[in-house]
Amino acid sequence: MEGLNQTVTHFVFLGLTNHRSLELVLSVIFSILYLLILAGNLLIIVTVAWDRCLHTPMYFFLGNLSFIDICHSSVTMPKMLFDCFFHRKVISYGGCITQLFFLHLCASAEIFLLTIMGYDRCIAICYPLQYVNLMNLKICGGLLGTLWVGAILHSLIQTALIVHLPYCGPNVIDSFFCDIPPLMKLACTDTHITGILIISSSGLMSLVCFVILIASYAVILISLGRQTAESRQKAFSTCAAHLLVVTLFLGHCIFIYTRPASSFPTDKLAAVLYTMVTPFLNPVIYTLRNKEVKNAIKKLWN
User: Fold this and answer.
1) Distance from C-alpha of 245 to C-alpha of 95, rounded to nearest angstrom
2) What is the dihedral of CA 288, 290, 296, 298, to 10 degrees?
3) Can you tell me the distance from the alpha carbon of 126 to that of 121, in angstroms, rounded to the nearest whole number?
4) According to its UniProt record, where is this protein located (predicted)?
5) More confident call, 230 vs 212
6) Are 293 and 287 within 8 A, CB to CB?
């Protein structure tokens, strides 16, 4: 291999659809969706920071989840919306690699944070008397720092695996953003080993986090059997919102990254769901099912 990027200096996106009229309609819908993502998640961040009643580990992590959702959607959506105004959708090689790095940084950070939030709920429900000592501010800060270190390392590994593949043409990506599966298809070499390494890091990370979350909720369910009906209802309300977010996000990640690179019509739909729909649904799920957040928003509004 003589050089990493022999001839390809840019990539061309095919976008979501080849129909111009449908593309314009989708651009309006996704523009509104992006504004709602920004507004909804910023509202949660401001509410958690403003209301002292929400200065607890659960809402501390919820505010960080909203921050990650804003970053996650901002990696792909502004570029996609900008490209809707042009017939030819182009991104430079460096821009593509940068987008891929931050996409996986935000995605892995969200997976790790959702896992930590599951652990937090497990401690709060199963060990309420020791919760203050087990989940104090220092521990929460340490978990958050570990989260970002792990996310950066994971994203660097994923990016390095892609950068070391040669790209000598073609340069057309059948998507609306740069990601590992479509880029692997364009490499001018056998990507079998690279695919195994990527599945081992991304796919197994998602699966391991999912297993940890399932184990946490199994412990929670066992613990709820010994609690009062009121406590069970409150715990179920909180856990149901978190479990729904986990299923939405991790389900898409497992579907995309735990199989070899290929082209399925459902891939674009899955990409839309985990880069746009999930960041929009997270604040909706947590505010509509959480009385404390709703009351804090009302007080902030007043």
Assistant:
1) 30
2) 30
3) 8
4) Cell membrane; Membrane
5) 212
6) yes
* Single-letter residue type at 85: F
Q: Taking the C-alpha atoms of 61, 66, 72 and 74 in order, what is their torsion angle to the nearest 10 degrees?
A: -150
The helix (H) or strand (E) run that includes residue 105 is helix 93-126
Query: Can you name the residues that pair with 90 across neighbouring β-strands?
Result: 12
- Based on its alpha-carbon atoms, the radius of gyration of the chain, rounded to whole angstroms, reads 21
Is there a contact between 143 and 236 (Cβ–Cβ < 8 Å)? no
89-92 and 10-13 beta bridge pairing: antiparallel
63 alpha-carbon distance from chain centroid = 14
pLDDT tens profile 153-208: 999 999 999 998 888 878 898 888 998 888 888 888 888 888 888 877 777 787 78
User: Residue 259: is its pLDDT beyond 60?
Assistant: no
Contact status, residue 58 vs residue 8, Cβ threshold 8 Å: no
- Provide mean pLDDT across the span 269-281: 80
Domains (range + CATH), the chain = 10-301 (1.20.1070.10)
pLDDT for residue 263 is more than 60: no
Can you tell me the distance from the alpha carbon of 220 to that of 235, in angstroms, rounded to the nearest whole number? 9
What is d(CA 207, CA 199) in angstroms, rounded to the nearest whole number? 11
pTM reported for the whole predicted model = 0.86
3-state secondary structure 145-157: HHHHHHHHHHHHH
Residue 273, pLDDT above cutoff 90? no
Phi and psi (nearest 5°) for 130? -100, 5
